[in-house]
Amino acid sequence: MATPDPLDLRILVLLQEDGRRTVADIAGRVALSPTAVKRRIERLEAAGVITGYSARVDYTKLGWGIAAFTELRFTGTTSPGDMDRVAAGIPEVCAVYTTAGNHDVTALIRARSVEHLRDVIHRLRVSGSIVGTRTHVILDAHVKDDWHPELDG
């Protein structure tokens, strides 16, 4: 796909703000016909720029009030695929990020309590290939779910 033009970027911003926004609403905001907007959205989807649509969930309201980043250091012979599988094999691990630096992987973990978090970390530690962990409990999150590059830059 060619680089998205300013209209594509504006459509992306509108969808990030509200993924349930109608094509007609977007068309009115970007001064295009609904058909043209629909074609642009389909092109962005086909190119993998838009990877899906989802709901933002407040997990604390579902009883999962503890969130933490746990850095995992693996043995030197562990493949990147095995690193991902170890962390992803724990249901409480929400996301796995391969990183550069002192640790190999950072995992986002959600737990119901501090005791539950301790249990999750223990399960990671005894997986056999992890040689060190460091956990950072998240006190408050200021997530920019709708981050986007400057439209004019």
TrEMBL record:
One of its GO terms (biological process) is response to amino acid. It comes from the Bacteria. GO terms for molecular function: sequence-specific DNA binding. Pfam families: AsnC_trans_reg, HTH_24. PANTHER family: LEUCINE-RESPONSIVE REGULATORY PROTEIN (PTHR30154), TRANSCRIPTIONAL REGULATORY PROTEIN (PROBABLY ASNC-FAMILY)-RELATED (PTHR30154:SF45). Residues 4-65 form the HTH asnC-type domain. Coiled coil: none annotated. It comes from Baekduia soli. CDD domains: HTH_ARSR. Gene3D superfamilies: 3.30.70.920, Winged helix-like DNA-binding domain superfamily/Winged helix DNA-binding domain (1.10.10.10). One of its GO terms (cellular component) is cytosol. This is Lrp/AsnC family transcriptional regulator. Keywords: DNA-binding, Transcription, Transcription regulation.
